[in-house]
Write a structure and sequence with these properties.
CATH topology of the largest domain: Ribosomal Protein S8, Chain: A, domain 1
Distance between the termini: 81 Å
Number of strands: 5
Strand order of the largest sheet: 1-3-2
Shape: elongated
Radius of gyration: 27 Å
Order of helices and strands: HEHHHEEEEHHH
Structural class: alpha+beta
Strand content: 15-25%
CATH architecture of the largest domain: 2-Layer Sandwich
CATH class of the largest domain: Alpha Beta
């Protein structure tokens, strides 16, 4: 297990899980506190990097909302503030189905019901192509025929 994974596991089990059980929406942690409790020496930058990482936020189900401390950001006095998300893999409701996908993949199949109503995606595109350019503003036809 890497040092970052150790920080992630410690942070999750000692801060995030208890905060969730208490119904808290946020949690604060000081880098030096985790460093000390893990019994490490001279690894504060590893703790700071792990707490700032997107991977930790994604895996633990938190979002970093603030960070305070010295400008270097690599000190035992740096305090990290996290918002606790409702679950580690927040799911997205798309149409009538649940999707745990993120980004564009969460949108996959969103218009399936609409296309089904018009005979499928190909039928919809065919109809759109047939009608493309057929709308001419009033008066334009007369100018073209002269």
């Amino acid at each position: 297990m890497t040092f970052s994974e150790q920080v992630q596991q410690f942070f999750q089990s000692n801060y995030v899980v208890p905060a969730r059980q208490r119904g808290q929406g946020t949690v604060e942690v000081k880098a030096g506190e985790i460093h000390r409790k893990l019994g490490w020496s001279r690894r504060v930058p590893v703790v700071c990097a792990a707490l700032s990482s997107q991977k930790l936020q994604r895996n633990v189900g938190v979002r970093l909302t603030g960070k305070s401390g010295p400008p270097s950001g690599q000190s035992p006095t740096v305090v990290y503030r996290f918002e606790i998300l409702s679950s580690v893999n927040e799911s997205v409701t798309v149409g009538n189905r649940q999707s745990s996908s993120k980004g564009l993949m969460a949108m996959y199949g969103i218009a399936a019901d609409l296309y089904r109503e018009v005979g499928g995606g190909e039928a919809f595109l065919r109809a759109e192509r047939e009608n493309f350019g057929s709308v001419v503003p009033d008066g334009e036809e007369e100018k073209d025929s002269q």
